[in-house]
Specification:
Blueprint: H1 4-20, E1 55-59, H2 60-68, H3 72-91, E2 98-104, E3 119-128, H4 133-199, H5 205-237, E4 247-251, H6 262-269, H7 273-294, E5 300-309, E6 314-322, H8 332-397, H9 403-438
Parallel strand pairs: 1-4
Antiparallel strand pairs: 2-3, 3-5, 5-6
């Protein structure tokens, strides 16, 4: 019977530890039910992969989806969420119990020289966290996970805005190229007419020189725009990882934005991921302070087991408790740090909120003034310039005005449409910035196939 109780207790302890040990493990993803982020891009897998061969045109929706599904920084932010979800899972786990064993009173001298009076004991110790540490640790980890989710949403908005801006740049340059090509075609036709009139003696050779200068200037303008367009196309394609553009053009349409008020935008701003991210930082800082204050409460450790006495072949049970004495370390520094970080988060929130309001105000004022300028240009200037150009063209063909008047009228007509194009670009840029700030809760018109800037 010697050591019989010892063996039985050891077997029981091992069985108990194997049964009670949690089976949830981060190594086995099938056993872990991680919560998805609050903001998830619809369709994590692209509807279609970027084409390997050149296509005629791409839409804004296609460019946005391809970029969001290929951009490495977005994938990195996504796995940050996964990491914090794992940390949240770990935060709610209790400390593992510990198995221990010891022997005493053996191998000495005299009566304790052998093992006749040796005693041995085995047992289990368990640490118990007091002060609600596990619950508070879990709340802090969950707040950290929500922060990562909101950062993911803010990153989506940031990348989407970048795609829209580069797409807009390509589209605007396409329109400029179209207008400049139209101007070049007109100069070329005018030049041909002037050559015939000079040969017939109906026009001065100086008219031909002026026509040649205009023709050369228009060709230089075409080359410059084409170079800028090529750079813009590469910049857009680079967003989804393409080394060179796989599209020949982009398809879009300018539309005046729908009516909405500044107050509505401010209300939507307070629902955006960037805004809620700052509020969640306060929650996280508060949870960190609660946890720091709980750390000053000492945890206890209980232990129990069985002891075997060789000398009498008897056994006895024992219980023990360990309570740290908080004489020196009461987590004073940790609490002070957490309080300071909470105040810091509060002031950072106020600073960020002020900056967001200022950004929205600036974008809104720019949008309103640009929209008014576009409307004034279209109602008061565009038609007048077109009528003047058409009238002078007819007058030149009938010999009533010289070529200078004709070239000036045609140049003015093109320049006014260039100004309109620049205003539309500025208007769209303001809309993109507002959309980035207020998330997608304000519905803006989407881009479509055709363009009205030619007319």
């Amino acid at each position: 019977m010697k050591y019989a109780i010892f063996r039985v207790f050891l077997a029981t302890t091992i069985f108990f530890m194997g049964y009670a040990t949690p089976r949830i493990s981060l190594a086995g993803t099938s056993d872990v039910n991680l919560i998805p982020p609050q903001i998830v891009l619809r369709g994590q897998i692209p509807a279609e992969s970027p084409p390997s061969e050149t296509v005629d045109s791409i839409s804004l929706d296609w460019a946005v989806e391809a970029t969001l599904n290929q951009h490495p920084s977005l994938a990195a932010t996504w796995y940050e969420i996964k990491a914090r979800q794992g940390a949240a899972l770990q935060a709610e786990l209790s400390p593992n119990p510990a198995f221990f064993g010891e022997i005493e009173e053996f191998g000495g001298s005299g009566e304790v020289s052998g093992t006749a009076v040796m005693s041995s004991r085995i047992g289990i110790s368990q640490e118990f966290l007091l002060g609600g540490k596990i619950a508070k640790r879990k709340r802090k980890a969950e707040a950290s996970t929500r922060i990562a989710s909101l950062e993911y949403g803010a990153k989506i908005m940031e990348i989407r805005a970048l795609v829209e801006k580069r797409f807009l740049e390509v589209f605007t340059l396409q329109e400029r190229l179209h207008l400049q090509s139209e101007h070049l075609d007109f100069i070329q036709k005018t030049h041909d007419v002037v050559m015939k009139r000079v040969k017939a003696g109906d026009a001065s050779p100086l008219d031909l020189s002026r026509s040649q200068i205009e023709l050369a200037s228009a060709r230089i303008g075409i080359d410059q725009i084409r170079n800028e367009l090529e750079v813009a196309r590469h910049a857009l394609a680079g967003l989804w990882g393409a080394r060179s553009p796989v599209f020949s053009s982009v398809s879009a349409q300018y539309k005046l934005d729908q009516n909405f008020t500044e107050q509505e935008l401010k209300e939507d701003l307070e629902q955006s991921p960037v805004w809620r991210l700052q509020e969640e930082q306060i929650v996280h800082a508060g949870a960190a302070l609660d946890l720091a204050e709980a750390q000053r409460i000492p945890d206890i450790e209980l232990e129990g087991g069985v002891q075997q006495f060789n000398e009498s072949d008897d056994h006895a049970f024992f219980l023990g408790i360990t309570i740290p004495l908080t004489l020196f370390d009461r987590n004073q520094g940790g609490i002070a740090e957490a309080r300071a970080m909470k105040r810091k988060a509060h002031y950072e929130k106020e600073s960020k909120f002020l900056a967001l309001h200022m950004e929205l105000q600036e974008a809104w004022q720019k949008l309103v003034s640009t929209r008014q300028a576009v409307q004034s240009l279209e109602t008061e200037v565009l038609s007048v310039a077109q009528n003047a150009y058409e009238s002078i063209s007819k007058a030149y063909m009938s010999g009533e005005v010289d070529i200078l008047r004709l070239l000036d009228a045609q140049r003015t007509w093109v320049e006014i449409r260039m100004v309109r194009l620049d205003l539309l670009h500025e208007l769209e840029s303001s809309r993109i910035e507002i959309k980035r700030l207020v998330d997608q809760r304000v519905i803006f018109p989407a881009a479509s196939l055709t363009s009205n800037t030619h007319n």
